[in-house]
Structures are given as C-alpha cells and as structure tokens.
Amino acid sequence: MGFLNLFIVALMPVLKVIVITGVGLVIALDRINLLGPEAKHHLNNIVFYVLSPALVASSLAESITFKSFITLWFMPVNLLLTFIFGSILAWILIKITKTPKHLQGVVIGCCSAGNNGNLPLIMIPAVCEESDNPFGDPYVCSTYAKPYASLSLSIGAIYIWSYVYGIMRLYANNGMENGSTTETVPGSSRELAVLPSSDCHSIQMRPTIFEETNGKMSISKKIMQQMKIISGKVDLKKMFAPTAIAAIVGFIIGIVSPIRKLMIGNSAPLRVIDSSAHILGEAAIPCMTLVMGANLLRGLKGSDMSRTVIIGIIAVRNILLPLMGIGVVKAARHFHLVGSSDTLFQFVLMLQYAVPPAMAVGTITQFFQLGQGETSVIMLWTYVVATLTLTLWSTLFMWILA
Q1: Pseudo-torsion of CA 314, 327, 108, 124, nearest 10°?
Q2: Strand residue runs (E) in 212-308
Q3: Which end of the chain is more exposed for a tag (fewer CB within 10 A), N or C?
Q4: Pairwise CA distance, residues 141 & 125, whole Å
Q5: Distance (Å) of CA 388 to CA 120, 318, 324, 339, 384
Q6: What PANTHER family does the entry give (predicted)?
Q7: pTM above 0.85, yes or no
Q8: What residues does each domain of the chain span?
Q9: pLDDT tens-digit profile of 197-221?
Q10: Domain 3-191+236-401: which CATH class?
C-alpha cells in the first residue's frame, strides 16, 4: 500500500478528533457556556464513573478470551516503558532548561504520561473503519480495536494515578516551602491538607533512624518498613479508578467460560446487562472528546511558562518517544514477545509512544493547586502540534508494519 494512501487512512481519525475537540472548545466559550466549568465538571464525572467503565467492561468482555489474554501481556510492559523513557527525557529537559522546582513535576508528568485512553479509543476504531486500512477486514479489525484501546485506557489510568501522581505530589510538596496546599478528590467536597514541610522532614529523618538501628533491626524488617513508606505514598483509591475496576470485571467475564455464557451472546440469559453497558459505552468517546476540547480552552489565556520548556516537551512527546517506540516494538517482535502476525496490536503499542500528554496531568495539578495555567498552555500547544505529528507517525507506523 502506498504511503499517500496510508496518510489518508491516518488523517481521517485525527480530523475526527479535531472536529469534535473544536466543538467542545466552542461550546465551552463564555459567550455560549454550554460546557462551562460546572457543566464540564458534571460531564467529566459521568464519563469517569459511568460511561468509560461501561465501555471498557463491555468491549473487553465481548472480545477477550483466555487465549487472547495471554497474548496481550506485553501491553502493560510497553506502557510502563513509555512512562520510564518519558521520565528520563523529562529529567534531562529539566537539567537543560533549569525548570523552576514547582514546575518540575508538571514537566515530568507531561513527558511521561501520554493520552493512552481517549485518543486510542477514537483513533484505532476509526482507522479500522477505513476500507484501505492495512490491518485487514474492517469488521475483524474493529472487533479487536476497542479491546486493545480499552486495555490501554485502564492500564494507563493505573500508571498515571500511581507513578505520575506520586511524582507530582512529591514535587508539589517540595515546591511549597512554607505554606500548605490542598488536594481535592473528584466527587468529594472534602479537601485534604498536605503539609510539605512535615513530609519532607520525616523523609529526611528516616535514614538516620535506619542507621542508628542498623545492628539491631533485621534486613527483612527494614525492607518491610521501606515498603510501608512507599505504599503510603500511593493512593490506591485513585490508582484503581473505575476504568481499572471495569477492566478487571471485563477480563473475568471474558475469560471465565460459565460467566461468559451467561452474559455474552444472542442467546445468553443475562445479555441485557452486556447490551446496556455497550449502549452506555458508545457515548463515552464523544463525551471524552468534548471535555478534552473544553479543557484546552484555558490554555488560550496564556501563562508565564518558558517557551523553551514547552518546545522541549513537544520534542519529547512528538519526536523522541515515537522513535523509541519503533525500536521497542521492533525489538519485541524480534524476540517473539509479540505475535508478528498481529499488526494491529503492534500499531497500538507504537501509537502509545506518539500521543500527546494525558489530560489527567491537568487534573492532578488542580488537586495540588499548582501549575494549572502552565499545564493548560502545555496541553494546548502539544495538542496543536500533535494534530500533524500524530498523523505522520501513524502513517509511518502503518507503513513499517504493512
């Protein structure tokens, strides 16, 4: 298949994202105010707690079996590598640009966490719908497209709310020298006070305690204490978000044969549950994209964020990481870690390196009330540039795999 034909196949999903995102941005304007701050908050909660979990659970339950589950094991590893490589490149960028301390967590978050939920859910099924797609029959391709994208969404959510959330929390605490910041949990009116000075002091004192008790405390006890310290920094409530729980439910339904026969199929006794979840899930993608457009509106107001840092983040997410992604997937294919015949799965793995920053990074900055304006500007420009780079990288990925 020619490069131009592949470019058109890759362009169509990106154009769909642009159109729906543009609608979300327009209806969020003050003059129209159909998706203002309050409406956006409520719609985001509906997507987070209802629509997105329904989409993930139904798509995984319908198409995942025990055999296919075994073949998907590399996706969590691949996603973890995107976070690790992004963090390393972010650390280099921080050293080069001398980013202020209170914004270093934002830079790491934007470089490490990609939008591996919304965009794959839109783009991958849309690519399959094109008659000239390189992945075979559109119906068969679409059958696997949503499960792959749903798995990417759920695993990405776990990594974001454990790895990225923990790093940004640490940097937010270090960035507040004398004051305190607040953390607001979605769906709750309660605010949790975070005292950076106390946390930092206690962390600094722990090595001294270990040194003093070196001769008395066994190695196993030391390891257990360190594990407790690390686990205390991880918010399990956010880590296991509704989408992650829905993915577990979907896997159980799909893999356990008796449950699958009860719920999946035209003759299943409880098929109405799966059908209802499927209907709800269909609304998730357009609602996600509308909210994404509304979130980008704040970036138009500008901030004091350094242009060098913004350009550096764009380079990391839109140039360096996709190149690494090609190398990782080619290596995985060479060592038979992924099936050589499943080109759609390999395309998804490559795409996970090429997406712009996750919108959840902006949500995390709202929790800590730190760097919100700067994050909005970063999101705006990375997504503007991604409209071109994502098309080009998708074309190149398909050309390599085809």
Answers
A1: 70
A2: none
A3: N
A4: 8
A5: 16, 10, 19, 30, 8
A6: EFFLUX CARRIER FAMILY PROTEIN, PUTATIVE-RELATED, PTHR31651
A7: no
A8: 3-191+236-401
A9: 333 333 333 444 444 445 455 666 6
A10: mainly alpha
